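W.,

You were right to be curious about this one. When I first looked at the sequence I had no strong expectations either way, so I just let the prediction run and decided to look at it fresh. Below is the sequence, 678 residues in total, followed by the output.
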Amino acid sequence: MNSGSKTNAGSWRDGVLRYFSSEIAAVTRVTVVADPDGLLLDDAVCTTLAQQGFDVIPYVDSVKFRFYYESRHRSRWDAGQHSSIVVSVPHGRDGLGRMPFDVLSEAEISARVFDVGLATVFPNLACDVLAELDVADLDAVWGVSRTLGKESLGGNQTRDLVLRSVFKLSADMVSSETDLVVQLVRLHHAKRVVPRNFAERFASALQRDGRFDRWPIAELCSSPDEFFRMLQDRWERCLHKLDPRVAVRPVRPAGPDEVDFASPEVAAILDNLFIEGRLIEVEVSDPALFKERSDAVGIRTSSTVPSSAPVRKLLEAVRSEVPEPDVPPTVWTRYALRWAELVGIADALATHEWTAIRDDFASVQDAVDDRLWDWLVGRFSALINRSFLPVPTVVHHIPHLLAHRRRPGDKVALVVVDGMSLSQWTDIRRAAGPAWMEGMTVEESAVFAWIPTVTSVSRQAILSGQPPMFFEATIHTTSAEERLWKSFWEGRGWRRDRIAYIKQKDGELELALVERVWESVDSGQAECVAVIVNSIDRLVHGVGPEGNVLAAAVRQWGQNGHISHLLRGLVDRGFDIALCSDHGNVESVGVGRPDMGSIPEDQGQRAITFPDAGTLDAARRNIVGSRHWPGPGLPPNSNVLMPAGRGAFSTAGATVRTHGGPSIEEVFVPWIRVSRHT
């Protein structure tokens, strides 16, 4: 099981938490902290502070901060109640001058103004280097840094320490090409993303004596897409040597001349790469040539049919890796990618093969969902204000990352595929074939959707860059999306006529949607574009609940090339693209519908929002096992009820395909960056 990070003795978080206690929370209203490295926004720190009675909020947008401060705290103080807010100021001491006078004065009266930062927590390391990491990676750095004593490390030495402790990459341990391939295979199989500057340092350390000078090491290290594209090519060439009828790619990706797939270290993980879909089996005409060879794990014939055996193997691996309760969110996002691989190959099984593993699959599924529910209840609120760097954590962080270090004139496109799960994105990408990705870099990861996982909540959060509490008036509709999208970019200097929002209309064919996109961007006006694709959500609600039937429909949609054509065209037109979804979907079984009273019947099957706690409690008593979602980040009058497990508020016993709940397939959605390969 994954142990993750805990706020126990000996953690780097102790240097932050020493300024806080439940006793302090009980007697102070405002604490202002110069927090240039965002340490207060770490989800484990936020969770601990919330347990002590503090409410942590970053000071980023003065208008939104004032709204939150007045509605959540000042109003309570005026009513004679107590609360304690902690304001994280991202620009350090220099940023304190931007704070509202009344807020800063309140903190100064109580002597609650101070600063925290990497420089005080890691005094013997180069903190500008550590600032490039996800805050969750500091746990591994802390453990190693305690062994340094009084020794101080410079920038390159700090990068080397991080490469060894966080990413398990060491130039000193590479004595052959196979050694390097093994380190990279393990890195990418673990779904670790290496920031570019660290990848370049690793490349420099390896190539300083002339070794690997023809390898694009930095690209192979920082981009899983580049690495597996190279490895797939070397696999095909390896098979081509045994059977010249095996086709090879016309363009050979840079890297080693060949890979020793028979080496014990590579062979040990090779079959997993094929099972999980990181490498694609190669079709051969004469499988007898490969009989009883390790090569046999990555070949297929035209008559090969999916088997439950590899699904069982991956299922057991996934069962053993269920995240522990106190892990950081990055552990869950990596695990969600593994789970999506499992769902994808399970959905490809024939009905009789699926039946053979269904009970075991459901057992693991229930264990994962239960663990995730407990984690979300305790930690989701702490994700809301987490930094969007180096990668977003929750979907409303996405536009902030797109806007980071960009100016009007840059071309940015966001494609939101409504209702697309992680496993469905994988099916779509594979079904479209490899040709559309030639000359492009595709970086894949996962982010948290907003909960409840419904379009009006999560997609509005994506387009506005805000938690739902800030669009309370439109939380049950999508009518304000265009206004929210344009407002976000106008606030960052873009002209309104340079911002486009293009949504697929009811009944509109994909070709017509793409033509409308080209009309907008080819006019020379649109520089910042949001494209909303509704096709997958239509399939989810129209094809039927069975996973293999829906998966077949999704693959066919991918083979039709609609999304690949859109992405390819945007890249060719100079856009930097992000593709994501607002929520996933699951097969659910009806548990009955509570007495709704005045609540509209079209409210979700996996989540119902009531206007007050009393109505929710009354409905909860009608449905055994239903549970209240605490609703962090939602408007104050949002009281959300959810069925137990993968139940649905629909006819008892009826099977439906829907969304809105907190299962792993609904909460984690794709976050894809597509750009021209350089």
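Here's what jumped out at me. Confidence is low (pLDDT under 50) at residues 1-9. And, maybe more interesting for your project: The domain at 14-121 is CATH 3.40.50 (Rossmann fold).

Coffee later to discuss?

I.
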